[in-house]
């Protein structure tokens, strides 16, 4: 690999190259990067330069050196969502300096199943909006959202309106954003439909989240089943002793 000796310091060029390769998945989390003698040959630089580059990568949390074991990749490309506040997917992705998007969206009105009817506390004859979306981060499919919204709420029937934050559409329709959210989590393996939707292998781990959102009058306004790529997305919860 050629290094530009008239440009940035050599160690910095080595660091930037290795960092990019780690982020792009050439060296996944838990794997070993090439040993120092190999890196010397790859980059045509001295051992001191390689060690300085690795020291900086370790300081930034990308790798961990262990005597006799080599240098292990510790960087994780997973998106971590915090359960400490109510945020939309769009907000979560933007806060991580990534580009949110939607690769697929459908919207229709339909008769709900008995379980959805009960969750949304609907009368027997009431319809629901069914909103199906595949949301992306930096153009990579991350999650499939299957959302049901009470049909008596006045929402736009234009699917394109929901390519960004659904909660922004709630505010535009004077529904307001959720005041209370109740969630349950489980794990499952991707079937063929999910593998195609999220561009993952059949049998890959899926984080399944069921969300019921209530307004400030404690009325259900959203019931969503989310299927996250378990290799890309993780959820953290912070608890405090009372």
UniProtKB/TrEMBL annotation:
Gene Ontology biological process terms from the UniProt entry: negative regulation of DNA-templated transcription
GO terms for MF: DNA binding; DNA-binding transcription factor activity
Key words of the record: DNA-binding, Transcription, Transcription regulation
HTH gntR-type domain segment(s): 8-76
Keyword Cell membrane: no
Alphabetized Gene3D superfamilies for the sequence: Chorismate lyase-like, Winged helix-like DNA-binding domain superfamily/Winged helix DNA-binding domain
Pfam families assigned to the protein according to its UniProt record, in alphabetical order: GntR (PF00392), UTRA (PF07702)
Domain of life: Bacteria
Protein name (Swiss-Prot/TrEMBL): GntR family transcriptional regulator
